[in-house]
Structures are given as structure tokens and as C-alpha cells.
Elongator complex protein 5 (Apiospora rasikravindrae), 343 residues
Amino acid sequence: MAPTTQHSRSHALLLFQKLLNLRDGASPLTLILDTLEQSAKPVVREFVARARISKSKIIFVSFATLKKPADIDIFVKARGKTPEALRSEIVSHYPTGPPGHAHKVLLIFDTLNPLCTAIPSQIPQVLSSLITGPAVSLVATYHTDVPLVLSPQSLGEYEPHPLTVLSHLATAILRTSNLGQAVERKRARDRSLVEPEFGLREGREGVLVGLQIRERDAEGLVVEMEIRRRSGRSVAEKFVLVSPPPGGAPLSAAKSKVDTGARISLLSDHPLLRDIHEPVAEESAEDAATTFSLGLSEKQRKDREGIVLPYFDAQTDIGGGEGGRILYEMGREDDFDDEEDEI
């Protein structure tokens, strides 16, 4: 693999780790888009676990969650409250201290769909008022397959959809999908078959059952990251997140300085999703001395050694100190100029 490609892949992995660790205000607003096939709860639990390690205050705003989740400091019930009352209650739980010593705050919304239905035009103002400083990181989930019932009074005809506004405001977007379904699509592509569809795209009548396609060896979920840097450049990459089983022994963390028990790797590095047509060439001593790998087979290497370069006889000593003299024969289309040096 070329060093440039390897560097970009490592850089994307470090950015994802930085986002999960809430380091240096990596993303004031992180939007998680999930579906019935793959919930965003494993990603939210990873945010909570890393926030507990960094001793950040965790505030959970509930629209659909009935019981207080584990490792949550403050549990706020938001259903039935006005935006002003909800904001006042959330901000009242922010830690206070001397300037320059503010503690980190992880603010979690279990779903934004009720807010997008009730006040679609006020979503930017409400979310912006909750991010009062660089110490506050907002992580919100939006269910993409839950339809929004928008009335003409709440949303104008020419106003953008709430999801479009959220995608524009978010500095990081995480899209979750089922790993088992990704494996099934990969197998279909390898056999030159039509990729199967799942969930609502399947177009079947009846009850929709999520996570029906699951491989025993494909535990985990796929997370597609899109993070917007301060320079305006967007970095996109796909990862596989394997969370530890609830109540069980934590898994050994890989490629992470924070031991939360989760394993994170690039999607292209997963054993079930690696490209079977990708050539794997052994690194020779000649390739090790270069900054890139030629990836030549044995036959190609022999053919390269047998190639006779043009004007090869000019590289030998012809005699009389004329070694290295350039030999050139003019053609009919050449226009000889007397002012040029003699060839």
C-alpha cells in the first residue's frame, strides 16, 4: 500500500477517535443518522463510555427513552415542554466554575424527530442556544426512516426540510448501517449479482423487522463518518465498530488510547469485506528500498529485465573518448536549423 494512502487511512481513524473522545472541540454538533435496521445506540454508548473516562458531565435529553440509561449524570424529560423551558432546564445543569476551567459537557438527544415535527423552523436557534461554549458537545440522533408530519403552518412551502437543515448545521455526521447487510451486498458484488435491498427499500408489505440479517462472525455495525474541518475540508471514511456485550467482559481495545472495550477498524480492513481481487504481492528487497511498491509478478519482472533501451549502444565506449555520445537520425518531418548546435 502506498504511504500516501496509508497516511490518509490512519488520519481518518485518528479523526474518528478524536471525535468519540470529545477532544479539543472536534465537533460541537454531531448528528447520528440511524434506521430500523441499525440503531445508533451502540455509537451513543461509546460516546458515553469515553465521556465517563474523561470525567465529562453527561446530560441525557429524553423524548422517547423511559428509563434513565446507565452512566448518565442528568436525565431530562423533554416531552411536553416548550423550547424555552427545555433550554432553561438543560442550561441550569451546566457546571459553573472559574473562567478557563470549564468542565466538558456531553449533551445527548435520544431523538430529534419530535422537535423537527413540532418546531421545524426553530431547530437552528434551539440547538445553537444549547452550545454555549467549546466545552459543550451536542450529540443528537435522527431516525431517517420515521416520516415527519409537517403542517403548512409550521413549515413554509419554500423552507428546507428539517433534515437538510440539520445536515447543514452539523459539523460531524455519522450514518449507521448493519454490518451483516453490508456483507450480503459484498457477496452479491463478488458474484456479479444484483445487490439485495433491506428494510423499507425492499418494498415488501407487512411488519418491518430490523436486524433480521445478521452474521455470527459479522458482529458490530458500520459507521460512515463525515466530519467538516475548520478549514472547510470534509473528511469521509467508513468504519466498523464492535461494542462489548452488555454486562459482559469488555473487549480489548485496538488502535485506541482510551480503553472502553470497543474495537474500531476501517471497513476495508474487515475480513469479510476485504476485496478478494486486490493483489497481494510479497515485498522484495528491491521494493523495500523504494518509497512505493511496484507490485510486479515474476513474469513481469523478467520481461522488464529483457527490455533493450533505445540508443543502448550510446551507453558504451565507442572509442576515441566518444562514450555517451547521442546518436540521432533525422527524419523527413524534421526541420533542421543551422543555428542549433551540431548533433
The two ends are 44 Å apart (CA to CA).
